[in-house]
Amino acid sequence: MARWYGEIGFSTTEEETAPGIHTEVIVTREYYGDLIKQSIRRADINHSTNKDIDISNRISFVADPFAYAHIGQIRYATYAGLKWEVSDIDIDRPRLTVSLGGVYNEEQT
């Protein structure tokens, strides 16, 4: 099991960037944890020319009270210099284990 250090991004609030358009405000926190599984796969679900890359890693980290208070607002975790979408969260106090999916697209939030 490899060690992990990175950011977890939480969407805690929204702000109105234009009349009727709300954008998530992302708050980042740094955590230490363990990288449980390391694998990368190329997804061909949409049959497009430019295929998306998915990662099926799981990161387990010791959560602080902030993480537990905003567990439903976790959007991404950093790994290998990129932000990855969080697809699942397992609660095993005092740890949270997040499953990573595709690359996080900040423009869609």
Describe this structure in words.
The protein is 5% helix and 67% strand. The chain is globular, with a radius of gyration of 15 Å. The chain has 109 residues and is mostly beta strands. It is built from one helix and eight strands, in the order E-E-E-E-E-H-E-E-E. It has one domain: Beta Barrel (Thrombin, subunit H), CATH 2.40.10. The strands form two sheets. The protein has a six-stranded antiparallel barrel. A two-stranded antiparallel ribbon has the order 3-4.
**Main β sheet profile:** 6 strands, antiparallel, barrel
CATH class: Mainly Beta
Q: Determine the N-to-C terminus distance.
A: 32 Å
Q: Rough shape?
A: globular
Helix-strand sequence? EEEEEHEEE
Biggest sheet, strands in spatial order? 1-2-5-8-7-6
> How many individual helices?
1
Mean pLDDT: 87
Rg for CA atoms? 15 Å
Q: Which segments are poorly predicted (pLDDT under 50) over 5 or more consecutive residues?
A: none
Q: Strand share of the residues?
A: over 45%
| Count of folded domains | 1
Estimated helix fraction: under 10%
Please state the structural category.
mainly beta
CATH topology: Thrombin, subunit H
Strand element count:
8
Question: In terms of topology, how is this protein built?
Answer:
Blueprint: E1 2-18, E2 21-37, E3 40-43, E4 52-55, E5 58-62, H1 65-69, E6 74-79, E7 82-92, E8 95-103
Antiparallel strand pairs: 1-2, 1-6, 2-5, 3-4, 5-8, 6-7, 7-8
